[in-house]
Design a protein that fits this description.
Elements lengths: L1 H26 L11 E3 L1 E17 L3 E4 L8 E6 L5 E2 L4 E5 L2 H53 L7 H59 L1 E3 L4 E2 L1 E2 L21 E2 L4 E5 L5 E8 L11 E6 L6 E9 L10 E8 L11 E18 L4 E3 L2 E8 L2 E6 L1 E5 L3 E5 L6 E3 L9 H4 L2 H4 L5
Antiparallel strand pairs: 1-22, 2-12, 2-16, 3-11, 4-6, 4-10, 5-8, 6-7, 9-11, 12-15, 13-14, 13-16, 14-15, 16-21, 17-18, 18-19, 20-21
Length: 426
């Protein structure tokens, strides 16, 4: 046991000596390697910070041409302009099959004609009945007048005849009152019947007008000038990652489905997907640069328009940022890939070094500062980081720092220029 314990103590002492030797070797790198290391000096000045993100170009006020919600059944496309074709306001972009709507229009027109004939018939019948009632009323008035004239001779006639004349007058008056009442009822009944038929006419007319509007809506016209951008046809069985061809003549489209769009050439937006960590650096109104992959060398200015909500799984939290293009161009097209750089601010009169000069290990951040013929690691505090620069404290202006790890100066990666390739271009 004493031998084992002694062996363990020996090994522990040997490890401690080795660790001290390793730390000593890291303290100052041999001067022989110093000339081989790319270096830079700590600078003082203004550092601008920005966020880079990939995006996609879209029309800001895109006009979508959709299949109207008529009938609820899919319809076939009978005419469609070619993608990229220029279009003017009022010009026909697409036509849809109107066979079903034309059948409904013919039915509605037939119902309208039948209802109008029924109104004419009802009015004619009402006029005939009114004439008959008025004739009976005039006859009753005449009979009453004659009966009243007969009563004037009652003093000269026997009592029984005089009584008969008096009864005839009373009967005539009752009949006249009844006919007047029946005439008013007949007129009211006739008006009600005509109103019912006229309501049927109005219903049939509305039905016909609706069918005609549905037919007109099956012709999709542009409301603004621009060009045609056909939408992808996903009506059939779609598998993830499968290419979706655009709509073409003969395809079936569901109601409410967008067939084409007319991008607004005066309003463009780049939708960028940005990581959650950069959310705190962005706000609406910040300036941005938009680089179009398909238009190399062209840089478009923009401003942050909206910031969406954060979504995605815990390991990939992100949000959508919409950047409006300030001065658009006619070469822009929807779906173009973009690189968006959003300026988030700057720090003035600060110490900074290239990003590759800062090293991170076990939670500590440090740089390799030249001391004499070698380099010594020195801990620093990171203030803020940009794409190519880092603002730090713990070093002095003008101090020379290494751009690569001196311990790896002789490795293959360094000899190939791995650190040198990361230097910003002058």
């Amino acid at each position: 046991m004493k031998r084992v314990f002694g062996a363990l103590l020996f090994l522990a002492a040997l490890g401690a000596v080795g660790s001290l030797g390793w730390k000593a070797s890291r303290t100052v790198t041999a001067s022989a390697n110093a000339p081989m290391l790319p270096t830079t000096k700590v600078a003082r000045g203004e550092v601008a910070f920005s966020v880079w993100a990939k995006g996609e170009l879209q029309g800001g006020n895109t006009e979508m041409l959709t299949v109207p919600m008529t009938g609820g059944q899919p319809v076939a496309i009978t005419y469609l302009m070619q993608p990229g074709e220029a279009v003017k306001p009022g010009e026909v972009v697409a036509r849809l099959d109107v066979t079903e709507q034309e059948f409904r229009l013919q039915e509605a027109q037939a119902d309208l004609s039948e209802a109008e004939q029924q109104v004419i018939q009802a009015k004619a019948e009402a006029e005939a009945k009114e004439e008959e009632a008025r004739y009976q009323l005039m006859k009753a008035q005449s009979d009453l007048k004659i009966a009243e004239l007969e009563t004037r001779r009652n003093d000269l006639l026997p009592r029984i005849v005089a009584r008969q004349n008096q009864l005839a007058v009373e009967a005539g008056r009752d009949k006249l009152t009844q006919l007047n009442r029946e005439l008013a009822n007949r007129l009211e009944t006739a008006r009600s019947g005509i109103a019912i038929h006229e309501a049927a006419v109005q219903k049939a007319r509305v039905k016909a007008e609706t069918a005609q509007r549905n037919i007109d809506s099956m012709t999709l016209k542009a409301k603004s000038s621009g060009y045609v951008a056909l939408q992808s046809n996903d009506e059939g069985m779609v598998r993830w990652g499968m290419y979706l061809p655009p709509y073409q003549v003969g395809d079936i489209a569901r109601p409410g489905k967008a067939v084409a769009q007319i991008p607004d050439l005066r309003s463009w937006e780049a939708t960028a997907r940005i990581g959650e960590l950069d959310r705190g650096h962005l706000k609406e109104g910040q300036t941005a640069e938009i680089h179009i992959i398909a238009l190399p060398g062209r840089v478009f200015q923009g401003k942050v328009k909206t910031l969406g909500g954060t979504t995605g799984p815990p390991w990939d939290r992100h949000f959508d940022c919409r950047v409006a293009v300030t001065v658009p161009a006619s070469e822009l097209r929807p779906g173009m890939s973009t690189q968006v750089r959003i300026a988030t601010g700057s720090l003035k009169d600060v110490l900074w070094i290239p990003a590759q000069a800062l090293f991170d290990s076990d939670g500590r951040k440090y740089v390799f500062v030249r001391e004499g013929a070698g380099f010594r690691p020195r801990d620093v505090q990171l203030v803020q980081r940009s794409e190519s620069q880092v603002v730090v404290t713990g070093v002095s202006e003008g101090q020379e720092v290494a751009l690569t790890n001196p311990d790896q100066a002789g490795s293959k990666d360094t000899q190939k220029g791995g650190a040198l390739q990361a230097l910003p271009k002058s």
